[in-house]
Design goal:
With 322 residues, the protein is of the alpha+beta class. It comes from Saliniradius amylolyticus.
């Protein structure tokens, strides 16, 4: 039975397990898989390993992000885990150029189940199944039955990729901890971690979503799709937008791609675009792309439902001129 949503994130349960059907997987396999990825993504694919994941964006030639994902190695394959909508946009683009390399690229979303969670009960179960837990941010532990990625913001927590058989065992063992995916989404938002869905795919240069602040761009690596635009955005200071954390009172269901308006005196003008939304019972969390100079005391509202207002919350990292 799924736990009831808490009123606020301050009432987060000590043990949490969220099924994440909104996330998907792309696997790459073949002797040139790393070399191929290196020419496609914003981060250094050579730094992916069986022990460490990295955040990266996959862009078009204009530098707009098809998708965002965490990548790591599992068995003899490269794994990309991100929102299904973004990955669905990336898959045909990756396959288009993959025909020229010794690499097989496929959607494996339905072959595994993805979960997010935290707490002592989950950690004990993971140690029993995997033998060890990742101890640092983006460290990976794995077995033939799946993999674990650790995140340290806003608290230690784990993203799980499990075979269906092991997933059934997990849901039975932690039945009392199962909760709505909105809780994991709210934690991602508090961590300032963006996602790209079908509604926001091919809309934003990675820096507009703070990907550089999350170490998701390597500016020293060689060429990749969109690299010229991403580099110019950094070195010429052309980025005028950034992702902001917003919070509103009450439960409001906004969708990625929805428009926000910014209050200017007694008037309102277009303020930005929703990347993700996590409605709880008494508060709603958003991550949204706004003007980079948005003030900390700014008030925003939903264009579609003007009574829904939101205030700016602090990011857990610093933004620079990239």
């Amino acid at each position: 039975m799924t736990q009831s949503l808490p009123s606020t994130l301050t009432e987060l349960p000590e043990n949490l397990l969220c099924p994440l059907p909104q996330l998907g997987l792309i696997f790459l396999q073949g002797e040139e898989q790393i070399q191929y990825l290196q020419g496609q993504i914003t981060n250094d694919a050579n730094q992916m390993s069986h022990d460490t994941a990295l955040l990266a964006a996959h862009c078009d030639f204009k530098g707009k992000s098809w998708s965002l994902f965490h990548g790591f190695l599992w068995q003899d394959q490269s794994v990309l885990v991100g929102h299904r909508g973004g990955l669905a946009a990336s898959l045909p683009e990756l396959k288009k150029y993959g025909v020229f390399s010794k690499v097989d690229i496929r959607d494996t979303s339905d072959q595994f189940r993805l979960y997010g969670g935290h707490g002592q009960e989950l950690e004990q179960w993971l140690q029993l199944q995997f033998g060890s837990l990742p101890e640092k941010h983006l460290e990976v532990s794995a077995s033939e039955h799946g993999a674990i990625i650790r995140f340290d913001q806003p608290r230690p927590r784990y993203l799980l990729m499990l075979t269906p058989q092991l997933a059934d065992t997990l849901e039975t063992a932690l039945a009392d901890s199962v909760a709505d995916s909105a809780l994991w989404q709210a934690l991602d938002i508090q961590a300032g971690l963006p996602q790209v869905t079908d509604a926001t795919s091919n809309e934003f240069v990675p820096q507009m979503m703070n990907v550089h602040a999350l170490d998701g761009i390597n500016f020293k690596k060689g060429c990749y799709m969109g690299q010229e635009v991403v580099a110019r955005t950094k070195f010429l200071g052309r980025n005028k937008r950034a992702a902001f954390i917003l919070k509103g009172e009450g439960r409001h269901e906004l969708n990625p791609g929805d428009t926000l308006e910014l209050q200017l005196g007694e008037n309102w003008r277009r303020g930005g675009t929703v990347l993700s939304c996590a409605p709880l019972t008494a508060e709603t969390w958003l991550l949204a792309v706004l003007a980079k100079d948005t003030e900390s005391d700014a008030v925003l509202r939903s264009k579609a439902n003007p009574e829904q207002q939101f205030s700016v919350q602090p990011l857990p990292y610093k933004l620079d001129d990239q």
